[in-house]
Design a protein that fits this description.
By secondary structure, this protein is of the alpha+beta class. The protein has five helices and three strands; from the N terminus they run ββααααβα. A three-stranded antiparallel β-sheet has the order 2-1-3.
């Protein structure tokens, strides 16, 4: 997958390997549709298949959001799916729903609402300077 310096839609940045990606929020109608699809999958204490089904819907939703910034020529469906891990699934889902606040999501590496790599680098430099001033 070819990493882009700039993306068409602002969103929540996250790190994957050495690259940063931006997940834009989807329109409210789409968010509601996917939230309904997730909630329709009932918890079954005798069969764990419901977990995989919910994850599949959540990944589909995240990929739909990522597709706004990364075309088929830039990233295959599989490449976008592979950006999602069990550690970042929930936070990427919330980012695609527009629920991640600026500066939130420390385990995911969410920086802020950004549009370009330059903005991410500036945020990294500010964070490093702040850590140094606090004696870190």
């Amino acid at each position: 997958m070819q990493f882009k310096e700039r993306v068409p839609f602002r969103g929540t940045a996250f790190e994957h390997g050495d690259d940063h990606y931006v997940v834009p929020a989807l329109p409210l109608g789409v968010v509601r549709e996917y939230q309904e699809r997730v909630s329709e999958i009932k918890i079954d204490t005798e069969n764990s298949d419901w977990v995989r089904k919910r994850q599949d819907v959540m990944i589909e939703f995240i990929v739909l959001a990522l597709r706004k910034n990364y075309s088929e020529e830039e990233a295959t469906e599989k490449e976008l799916q592979e950006l999602v891990t069990i550690q970042n699934l929930g936070e990427l889902y919330r980012a695609a729903a527009g629920e991640v606040e600026d500066g939130g999501g420390k385990p995911l590496g969410v920086k802020s609402k950004v549009k370009s790599l330059g903005e991410i680098n500036a945020l990294d430099q500010n964070a490093s300077a702040g850590a140094r001033s606090m004696g870190a």
